[in-house]
Specification:
There is one protein chain. The chain is of the alpha/beta class and about 325 residues long. It has 2 domains: about 10-225, HUPs (Rossmann fold); about 255-330, Uridine Diphospho-n-acetylenolpyruvylglucosamine Reductase, domain 3 (2-Layer Sandwich), CATH 3.30.465. Helices cover about 50% and strands about 15% of the residues. It has 11 helices and 11 strands. Helix 5 (about 135-145) crosses helix 7, helix 5 packs across helix 8 and helix 8 (about 225-250) packs across helix 10. The radius of gyration is 23 Å and the shape is elongated. The chain starts with 7 loop residues before the first helix and ends with a strand.
Length: about 325
């Protein structure tokens, strides 16, 4: 009896995972799937189990139980059982979510990524995340609402390597959310629907349920894809800018007492966009803090509109003009 034809949705998700695994610089011995039990991560897990097995790569899944919802332990156990049925080494990590001023959603994300990072370091394996094209479009719109410039419109990178060596991979950024649901249905996988994903108290949910549908209705279909393309193009621009900036910084930056200094003349000679990026990068690299646009422009005025003004207080440091240099010092 001939095999049943492969579902187009399953094929699309598998192809995306295959491309992501092939693009890794060094073939890993294992990969980790961040598995919530939702359709996106479950479709990712199924495709990864298939593609990794063919490539001789071991697949693990990690389901993080935040303990913030009633029955969260059961939901995590169901996700792990689904992964095990796919031949995946499934693990459940219970975490304690520390409260902060950032809110419960951000606090849960911090705890989740810390748990995933610990497993990734122990296994020396990249982490695969189930973010889709729809998630990317929502991220771009959220960045636009914050008005924080091109950096916030770049969305999520397909691959990100952290300083500690952990690599985060998003194979499904070109795959629609409807496709992951169809892939789960075609594979007989029962996906969990997180009630938080329909709770209008969350800004991302309002973007998903209200803003994007209005844009599609008023401007025509293809808005999500257009937003994802915009993010990709802006990331390409940012990578080119970063190369120019790093080459420039080598010639104009010097170490100073308790900080670092930059040639004011060299900053003045650059276009405003490049000058502002250099200022932000210097502060981020030296002091580990990000500047707002207003703060960046205040520092730039020490170059372009110098009238003897005193030091500027910034997060973690101060900026002042000393002779022909802008000096950043730790506070």
């Amino acid at each position: 009896m001939p095999d049943a034809p492969l579902s187009p949705a399953v094929a699309e998700v598998r192809l995306a995972v295959r491309a992501a695994l092939t693009a890794l610089p060094d073939p890993p011995a294992a990969v980790i799937v961040a598995l919530s039990g939702g359709a996106d991560s479950l479709a990712l897990a199924a495709a990864t189990a298939f593609e990794a097995r063919a490539a001789g790569i071991r697949t693990l899944s990690v389901t993080v139980d935040h303990g913030l919802q009633e029955g969260s332990d059961r939901i995590a156990a169901d996700a792990a059982a689904a992964a095990q049925s796919l031949g995946i080494d499934a693990r459940v990590q219970r975490v304690t979510v520390a409260a902060s001023a950032d809110g419960p959603e951000a606090d849960a994300r911090v705890a989740r990524y810390a748990a995933l990072r610990a497993v990734a370091q122990a296994e020396n394996a990249p982490v695969l995340l189930g973010h889709t094209l729809d998630d990317q479009a929502e991220t771009v719109l959220l960045g636009l609402s914050r008005g924080s410039g091109a950096a916030s419109l770049q969305g999520m990178a397909p691959v990100r390597a952290d300083d500690d060596g952990v690599r985060w991979v998003r194979p499904l950024l070109a795959v629609r959310r409807a496709t992951t649901r169809a892939a789960c249905a075609a594979s007989g996988l029962g996906a969990w629907d997180d009630p938080h994903n329909a709770d209008p108290r969350y800004l991302r949910v309002r973007v998903r349920e209200r803003v994007l549908p209005v844009l599609e209705a008023e401007l025509g279909p293809g808005i999500a894809e257009a937003l994802a393309r915009t993010a990709e193009q802006l990331r390409e621009d940012a990578e080119a800018f970063d190369e120019i900036i790093h080459e420039t910084i080598e010639d104009i930056v010097e170490h100073a007492e308790a900080g670092i200094s930059v040639s004011a003349a060299a900053l003045a000679a650059n276009p405003a966009a490049l000058r502002n990026r250099i200022i932000r990068l210097v502060v981020q690299s030296e002091f580990g803090v990000g500047l707002t646009r207003r703060q960046t422009l205040e520092v730039a005025r020490l170059v372009t509109d110098w009238s003897g003004q005193g030091p500027i207080d910034l997060p973690g440091c101060t900026a002042a003009r000393r002779g022909g240099r802008i000096v950043f010092r730790s506070r």
